[in-house]
Amino acid sequence: MDNTIRTELEEELRELPVIQYAWVAKAEIPFSEKVRTICKEECPRYGKSWACPPGVGTVGECRAICDEFEGAFVFTTVAEVQDIMNMEETLATREGHEEVTREIRDLFRKRSFRTLAMSGDSCAICPECAYPAGPCRHPDRMIPCIEGFGIVVPLLALRAGIAFENGGGVVTWFGLILYGR
Fold it and tell me: Which of 163, 172, 164 is nearest to 81 (CA)?
């Protein structure tokens, strides 16, 4: 990506509630099968969404999809909550982050980039996902989960120089936009 486009994007990003961001080389994106173990054993969305495993494919397939893009943009948004351990309260802040993720994805698309946007949680557009009986009802809006692709977010944050946590009572949401021509 040339510096003019990058500068334009960064100027438009100032209008959004993005806390931190970084441009990341694809080689810096860490993948691990271990992340999938956590999905399978701890996430109630495992096997129930096109945005999560196994619907997104194997970690190898996900890595191959990511390799089709030329670069990556990682960013965070935050939301304050009374009790960070209250998953219902925490997850209620997700939609704002998802909207920012779509807006950033659209900034890239406006410049004719192909994109793959990922976010910090499973897609929640439909009350019940069509998976596995039918295709995704909203493939243009669906944003898969970063961890569902097998990406190790704490290590990605470290490599990108982005804080993984922002203090007590603050939910830090991660987004990842892969882009290419």
Answer: 172
Prediction pTM value: 0.91
Task: Determine the distance from the C-alpha atom of residue 7 to the mean position of all C-alpha atoms in its chain, rounded to a whole number.
Answer: 22
Alpha helices in 45-145 (DSSP H): 59-66, 87-91, 94-109
Cα(74)–Cα(102) distance, integer angstroms = 13
Name residue, tokens 């007590």: 168
Nearest to 24 by CA among 84, 66, 79: 66
What is each CA distance from 18 to 14, 96, 102, 106, 162, in whole angstroms? 7, 11, 13, 15, 12
pLDDT in tens, 150-179: 999 999 999 999 998 888 889 899 999 999
